[in-house]
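pls ignore typos typing on phone
magnesium ion + seq
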Amino acid sequence: MVREGGRIVLGIESTAHTFGVGIASSSGEILANVRYVYKPREGGIHPREASQHHSRIAPKALKEALEHAGLRLRDLDGIAFSIGPGMGPCLRVGATIARALALKSGKPLIAVNHGVAHIEVGRLVTGCRDPVVLYVAGGNTLITGYLEGRYRIFGETLDIAAGNCLDVFGIKAGIGPMPAPEEYARRGGKFHPLPYRVKGMDVSFSGLLTAALKLLDKVRLEDLCLSITETVYSMLTETLERALAFAEKNEILLVGGLARSRRLREMIEAMAGLHNAEVYVVPPEYAGDNGAMIAWTGILQLMSGQVVEVEDSRIRPRYRIDEVEASWRRIGL
Ligand code: MG
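k done
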């Protein structure tokens, strides 16, 4: 199934609500991508409850991934895991399992930055080469691109993530998180101006969320959904446009859970058309957190010698993507 001399890496994702196990090969095949998502009984993610979910489901997820790929532990060439950023208790589950598997199999341990993995699986499955990336999800909002050895952060949120803003709004409005607000927005007609905060290439959503919540019960919900989604997406599109010009690239890659948004994509495509840039969107199965993205980034790191000793594999809850030496990009991967 895998070419002679090819490598195979198993990747574990456990930064937040998802426990995922993926397996990837150096020829770019995703051999397994098993995901289990913790669903809080109410409100947001409770880190300890999520970590208990991950510990419970881990043996089953690992077994399913290996079975799906038709592989045994000894067939693997490396064990990768999300070292951060993310929630401490959740990260610890994935890290502990990865260390145990690496020690048991005697294969290298590969510590992967979760954000970099979203980007790399996006490059793999869409075929784009050197994009400006908009990484938007429940916990992250950043605009980045590869320049001189690293993924540089051109812009980011100064407070809450774009996905979080829309999820919290939807939950407080009683319709549930995304995609509900976007679905309601399609039936909206009247636009209510909300605070629009773009500072250079950075964005801020908390004032906008507060203002939108104050309008609940005062205006039609569909109109309010239209107003909040259009405002959030316009802010993202504007900053992305600035980054595109700054980095002088002609590809845009949209990754993270909010890459599933049809309307956001439409707006970005309209903007890209003005700059002769191509838009690539990660498909839904790789948009949310998943193990395949960790496995594939593990392959890239393994090929460029970026592995870690067990004693140096402490989790990094605040690990930023611009701290990562993207050594594989230097060798053209
Ligand atoms: Mg994520």
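Residues 114, 118, 137, 140, 256, 289 surround magnesium ion (CB under 6 Å). The chain has two domains: 8-119+287-330, 132-248. more later
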